[in-house]
């Protein structure tokens, strides 16, 4: 009798890898030691508001809360549908208990300083490739989506912390698996995967950045060497 083999989609395969790594922690305990107490209060308070239901936390803080690898100092909230400037008053009302001060409104985004934490609101129309992680009063982008957004950051001005975040993710998930997910999120970005591999070795903009505080050992030199090897390996595999 021939058994039928069910092939998993890239998203299903990556989710299984993540499930094996994070286990129950992924859905339960977050690493709250990676953020300040005011940041935790802002995250919990905003998430529970009506407007907060339309946003999810992304970026390095959402990753640190799930992986526990470094300290993070800002809160980046994303919405796939909202016109951010149009809801400025609603956002400021939701943040009112934390006395926000507007610091930047460029490119249709809004960034505030609240309780010594940077709190940003961004319109981000690219679809999610995995369900949001909703636990402990927080609504977070998945590791898969954060990884892809970090890869997207390489195409503009990648900060050193973006390389570090990707490095920690890639210790658990093969970069090739992440690249397989890219068409689901960035279907309209031409040659996304090729552009990313090219930028894996562009460290110039990040050289002047300082290191964040880490809870797990890592070095900038080791990170650069890792991505240099990755770019070479992936590039060679594409030529075979």
TL;DR?
The chain is an alpha+beta fold. It has helices at residues 10-22, 37-47, 59-67, 88-95, 143-153, 160-170, 175-185, 192-199, 220-239, and strands at 56-58, 74-79, 101-104, 110-114, 117-123, 133-135, 138-140.
What does this structure look like?
There is one protein chain. The protein is an alpha+beta fold and 240 residues long. It has one domain (10-239): Beta Polymerase, domain 2 (2-Layer Sandwich), CATH 3.30.460. It contains nine helices and seven strands. Strand 4 and strand 5 (117-123) form a beta hairpin. Helix 3 (59-67) crosses helix 5 (143-153). The chain starts with 9 loop residues before the first helix and ends with a helix. Residues 1-6 have low confidence and may be disordered.
Approximate strand percentage:
5-15%
Residue share in helix: 40-55%
CATH architectural grouping: 2-Layer Sandwich
Distance between the termini: 36 Å
Structural shape:
globular
Output the number of helix runs. 9
**What count of structural domains?**
1
Estimated radius of gyration = 18 Å
Unreliable stretches, pLDDT < 50, 5 or more residues? 1-6
Main sheet: strand order: 1-2-5-4-3
Largest sheet: 5 strands, mixed
What is the SS-derived class?
alpha+beta
* CATH domain class: Alpha Beta
Count every beta strand, where a strand is a DSSP E run of 2 or more residues. Answer: 7
CATH domain topology? Beta Polymerase, domain 2
Mean pLDDT, nearest integer? 91
Secondary-structure element sequence?
A: HHEHEHEEEEEHHHHH
